[in-house]
Amino acid sequence: MLVVLNILGVLFCVAVAYLFSVDRKQVDWRSVGIVLLLEIFLAWFLVGFPVGRMIVKAMADGFNWLVEIAYDGIKFALPDFVSKQFGGTADSMNFLTSALLPILLVVPLFDILTYIGVLPWIIKWIGKFLSFITGQPKFEAFFSVEMMFLGNTEVLAVSKQQLQHMSKERNLTLALMSMSCVTASILGSYMQMMPGQFVLTAVPLNILGAIIITSILNPVKVTETEDKVYGVQQTADKKEPFFSFLGDSILGAGRLILIILFTVISFVALASLIDHLLALTTLKWLSLENIMGIFMYPFTLLMGFDFSKAFDLARFMGTKLVTNEFVVMGEVSKEVMHHQGIFASAHARAVLTVFLTSFANFGTLGMIIGAFKGLVQKEKVDYISGQVPRMLLSGILVSVLSATLAGLFIW
C-alpha cells in the first residue's frame, strides 16, 4: 500500500506539472518517460541497492573527511571555535563553525578543479550522456550538470553568450531548472546537519527531476540548427594567474558564508516575528509552519506517511520554502542525526533530507531573476519575471519528486 502511495505521489507531481504547463500539446512524453525511468533506477541504486548505498556512503565519508581537514585551518586561527573532538578548545561548535566555515576549503577546492580543467571535462561528458539518453537539447543537458558544480547564479553568469543566443522560452527553461540545483561545494555543510547518504542521493535525483518537470512545465521544440552549445564566456584571452584566481575564490567563499549567515539570521528572526504577530490572534494553531504545512500536506500524504507524521513533515517542508534549507536543517538536525521522534524511521529521514537538499525557496527567485537582468535583454527578463509562479512550482515539484523516489526504496 505504501509503495502504491509513493507511485501515486510521482504521478501526482507529473499531473500538477502538466496542469500548469505552458503548452501541453508540445510535451515530449517519450523523453519524460525515459528520464523518469532513469531517475527511478538511480533512486533504487543509491537507496535500495547495497552496492549503491556503499558508493554513496563512501562519498559522504569523503566529504566529511574534507570537512574535518577544514577544521585544521579554522583551529589555527580560531581554536576556541573548534570543539575538543577536532583539536580545538571549545566544548561544542556553533552553526557558523560546524556548517559554514568549512566552505573556505571546499569552494576553493572545486574552483581549483575547474581551473585545471577537471570539472569542465566531467560536465562535458555527463552532459553529452544525458543529452544522448534523454533526447534533451545539448545545452539544457549540460546546464543541469553544471548547476551541481557551479551553483545556479554562477552557471548563468558563465553562460551569458549562450543565454543571449537562445530564445526567451529556452531562457525560461534554464530559470525553471535553476530553482532545483544545489551546489556541490556546499554539500559538506549540509552533511554536518543531515545524513550524508541522503544528501548526496538528492543531487543526481534533482538533476533528472529538473529535466522532467521543466520538460512538462515549459516544453520547447529545439531545431537541429538551434541546438548548439556556445563557448563559455571568457573574461580574458589568457588564463588568470593561479594565485590571483585562488585569492578571488577564497574571497568568494567568504562572501558566500556571510550571505548564508546573514540570510539565516534574518529569515529566522522574520519567521519568529510573523509567528509572534499571528499569536496576537490568540489562535494557538495559527503559525507560519502550520500555514505552510497545510499547503504541503497533500504531498506528504502521498509519500506514505500517516496523518500526524505527514503534517509534521509538511510543516518543515513549508518552512523551508519560505525561509531556506539551513533554517530547517538547524531545527531538525539533532532529531534526524539521533533518529528521534518521527525520524526514528529511515523513510522519514530520507524524504526530508532529499527534500531539503535544494535551493527551492522565495529567496532563490530573486537571485535568479536578478542574475538574468544582468545577462540578457529586457524582453527575456520580463518574460521570465512573468513566470515566477511556475518557477516556484518547478522547485517544489522537483524536490517532492526526488524525495518521493528516494523514500520509495527505504521504509
Defining key terms:
411 residues; mainly alpha; 20 helices; membrane; symporter activity; cell membrane; CNT_N_dom
SSE arrangement:
Blueprint: H1 2-19, H2 29-48, H3 50-77, H4 95-100, H5 103-115, H6 118-134, H7 138-150, H8 152-157, H9 160-165, H10 168-178, H11 187-190, H12 196-217, H13 242-279, H14 288-301, H15 307-322, H16 325-337, H17 346-356, H18 362-373, H19 378-385, H20 388-408
Helix pairs in contact: 1-12, 1-20, 2-3, 2-12, 2-20, 3-12, 5-13, 6-7, 7-10, 7-12, 10-12, 10-19, 10-20, 12-17, 12-20, 14-15, 15-16, 15-17, 17-20
Average residue pLDDT: 85
- End-to-end Cα distance: 12 Å
Structural class: mainly alpha
Helix content: over 70%
Number of strands: 0
Main sheet summary: none
Shape: globular
C-alpha-based Rg, rounded? 21 Å
Number of helices: 20
Proportion of residues in β-strands: under 5%
Number of domains: 1
Low-confidence stretches: 232-237
Q: What string gives the helices and strands in order?
A: HHHHHHHHHHHHHHHHHHHH
Describe this structure in words.
The chain has one domain. Helices cover 72% and strands 0% of the residues. It is built from 20 helices and no strands. The chain has helices spanning 2-19, 29-48, 50-77, 95-100, 103-115, 118-134, 138-150, 152-157, 160-165, 168-178, 187-190, 196-217, 242-279, 288-301, 307-322, 325-337, 346-356, 362-373, 378-385, 388-408. Helix 1 (2-19) runs antiparallel to helix 20 (388-408), helix 3 (50-77) packs across helix 12 and helix 10 (168-178) runs antiparallel to helix 12 (196-217). It is globular.
